[in-house]
Design brief:
two-stranded parallel ribbon; 12 helices; alpha/beta; Rossmann fold; 2 domains
Length: 313
């Protein structure tokens, strides 16, 4: 479209990351584009041993060859973890709190099992919205902690508790309605205080399982209780470093450490009987492998793995 209006057109990117074939994306379209092909010969992010795995996959499954490029001098830590051992592995392995971590899955269906493992470990994470922690869930968890610890509560935490029950007035001892009290806070005439809540409601939040009494989905309760059991302190959404993403959702992103979950569905396995679909699937996993800056761990699932040369079959 643009080429018809411009004197010069530059296409910049990696043609082997064309993982949207249903939108007409195909490496041949870019590689066969009329004009000169210039390969930038340096990757300032990828370790050499990671690049080799990605290259072997492309050359095994597609008609293309990866270019010779200069990579980072130090090798990545590469390991294979059976998914049954993931819980123990994450529990016992030291973590760098300042590093970013991706758990990459092929489908959201696989993501649910990974999410539950992270819940049980009390690891807050972003990413797939059905499973991840968002700002509102952080506020709610922090609000419950404030009640249990008897500490001060922020306006956002205060509001998170009120928003659970839009039709019920939980406020007592204030002589006004919920909306009136919130207006007073906005106008500086009042401050968020646990004393404003009905004492029976506060007692529910001090119970062994405070989330059982709240109108939440079973998955949300599982998430919050996992953090509470692990004694996770108040969670700042901006400080979350772990993300659960589909490979498609991670395209264009990078992390210090990647856990690449290799499980595929029966439908994907069946589709790969055709050569074209086998190629298309390779481009997806090529993207997954190349998201890391330092370490990559392949989490394997017996009988369900996407075959990656030298890693799993």
């Amino acid at each position: 479209m643009w080429s018809k209006e411009a004197e010069e057109v530059f296409l910049a990117g990696d043609p082997l990351q064309t993982l949207y074939p249903f939108w007409g994306s195909d490496p041949a379209y870019f590689l066969d584009w009329e004009g000169d092909l210039k390969v930038l010969p340096v990757s300032r992010r990828l370790p050499q041993n990671v690049w080799k795995i990605a290259g072997d996959l492309i050359e095994w499954c597609t008609p293309y060859r990866v270019p010779e490029i200069e990579t980072k001098s130090e090798d990545a830590w590469i390991d294979i973890i059976d998914h049954d051992n993931l819980y123990g592995w994450l529990l016992s392995t030291p973590k760098n709190k300042n590093s970013t971590v991706f758990h990459l899955v092929r489908t959201k269906y696989t993501g649910l099992e990974v999410a539950r493992t992270l819940y049980s470990l009390g690891i807050p994470f972003g990413g797939i919205w059905e499973y991840a922690w968002n700002k509102q869930s952080c506020y709610l968890y922090n609000a419950v902690l404030s009640v249990r610890l008897g500490s001060s509560i922020s306006y956002s935490e205060f509001r998170a508790l009120l928003d659970l029950y839009p039709e019920i007035d939980l406020i007592s001892n204030t002589g006004c309605t919920k909306s009136e009290y919130l207006d007073m806070i906005h106008n500086g005439c009042a401050i968020p205080s646990l004393r404003a809540f009905d004492e029976k409601f506060l007692q529910l939040l001090r119970a062994d399982d405070p989330f059982e009494s709240l109108p939440l989905t079973p998955l949300a309760k599982e998430k919050f209780m996992g953090a509470l059991r692990r004694k996770v302190p108040k969670i700042e959404y901006k400080d979350i470093k772990v993300y659960l993403l589909t490979i498609h959702g991670a395209k264009g992103m990078e992390a210090d450490t990647v856990f690449l979950h290799t499980a595929i569905t029966p439908a994907i396995k069946t589709a790969m009987f055709t050569q074209k679909e086998r190629e298309n699937e390779a481009y997806v996993w090529y993207v997954g492998i190349t998201r890391t800056k330092s370490n990559i761990f392949f989490v394997t699932y017996t009988g369900k793995n996407y075959p990656i040369p030298g890693i799993c079959s």
